[in-house]
Amino acid sequence: MTHTESAVTEEFLHFVWEQRLFRSEGLKTISGDHLEILEPGTLNGDSGPDFFNARVRINGTLWAGNIEIHRMSSDWYRHRHQDDPCYDNIILHVVHRCDQQVLRSDGQEIPTLVLPVPAHVLDGFSELMRSRLRIPCQDKIRDTDVFMLKIGFNRLMVERLQEKTGEINNMLEQNRHDWKEAFYQVLARSFGLKVNAVPFELLAKAMPEPILGKHRDNLRQTEALLFGQSGLLHLELLGDDYFLNLRSEYEFLSKKYHLQPLSGHLWKFMRTRPVNFPTIRIAQFAALIHKNGSLFSLLDDQMTLAGLKERFQVCASPYWNNHYRFSQVSGNSCKHLGEKAVESLIINCLAPFLFVYGEQTGKQALKDKALEWLDQIAPEENAVVREWEETGVKATSAFETQALLQLRNRYCEQKRCLHCHIGTRLIKNG
């Protein structure tokens, strides 16, 4: 068997059949009967025959029913279709190779077609499947019209946002469908970046937003509640005046609200830039709450990107100008939430949450706003985006970089070229 032949899969045969990429004139079954394909049917994504509601004409007689496709005709028996009544109404068995006659449960032969796959289609598919590149079509995509590539970005972007649905739904379930509390927790998780995402989420769950809301006008109390619940105020017995003041404030508030802190050892400082230390991120999170009150108010279909960024223009309190950790003096600099950090929060948290919220509440304007924000943000800078740039594909916005991430991670790396609008185009053209 050649490398090209070994690339043939049932999924590939489904693609060829559904797209009618084969020569349809002069078709005959393995028994020599004349065959005409009128309707290939509808692909079945569930159990049962591969295509429903097909119509074919065999020796002038019209047949309507289902189609089953296999790589080898003997797969019919290997899959034990002869024992399943669902396959009694198969009007045509389509195969790549016929190595065994196939009979119905009543002993009648099932009309079988050896699918005449065009050589250029098979070669195009085989070449992609054999590629060892992370983007299988990397060598060919340079010759592809960039407009044709970008025409599929909207679908990819919507698909990427919809993947967030599961994570957000889990948060909603945990919070009894309280959208405000769920968003507060998702945003907190994003504030922790990858290294401290889990501790930040646990902090938000241990420090309910309604309690913070009662003290948001007092930044010191907001900081005391967050730092106290983080457990970071309990890692040392002694510290400077700011540290001791926060701990004293927290001890009073924790008794008032019956709060139980996390373990301060959950937080990671190692292999983290000082500007992203959890102490700095918590202080910035406190400043964000102090400035905006209910964080859910950030999700508004009338909110412009500029207005949203302004709401995120916060600095950690002055103490942190010359500290990265409690009681350890450092060089002086304002620990503001930078534009790239804000854009990252919008891309990875606010836009997906707003999209899902709009989808589940039936508010299209919210979904449109989420996509609009992404389209207005400059393209991200990361290894995947640089990889695409090396192939000649240059993104012009975060909307496009997110689409390219989805394409690389969900299609290229998994060799799902048959489901990619570029892959299918290349396969068809050979």
Characterize the structure shown.
The protein is of the alpha+beta class. Helices cover 49% and strands 11% of the residues. The protein is built from 20 helices and 9 strands. Strands 1, 2, 3, 4, 5, 6 and 7 form a 7-stranded mixed sheet that branches. A two-stranded antiparallel ribbon has the order 8-9. Helix 3 links the parallel strand 5 and strand 6. Helix 12 crosses helix 13. It is elongated and about 95 Å long. The protein starts with a helix and ends with a helix.
Short note summarizing the structure:
By secondary structure, this protein is an alpha+beta fold. About 50% of the residues lie in helices and about 10% in strands.
The averaged pLDDT comes out at 93
Q: Which value, in Å, is the CA radius of gyration?
A: 30 Å
Low-confidence stretches: none
Question: How much helix, percentage-wise, in residues?
Answer: 40-55%
Distance linking N and C termini: 21 Å
Note the topology:
Elements: H1 3-6, H2 10-19, E1 27-28, E2 34-39, E3 42-43, E4 51-58, E5 61-72, H3 75-78, E6 90-97, E7 112-114, H4 119-130, H5 138-141, H6 146-150, H7 153-163, H8 165-174, H9 179-191, H10 197-206, H11 209-215, H12 219-230, H13 241-257, H14 278-292, H15 305-311, E8 323-325, E9 328-329, H16 339-361, H17 364-376, H18 383-390, H19 398-412, H20 421-429
Parallel strand pairs: 5-6, 6-7
Antiparallel strand pairs: 1-2, 2-4, 3-4, 4-5, 8-9
Helix pairs in contact: 4-20, 7-19, 8-9, 9-10, 9-16, 12-13, 12-14, 16-17
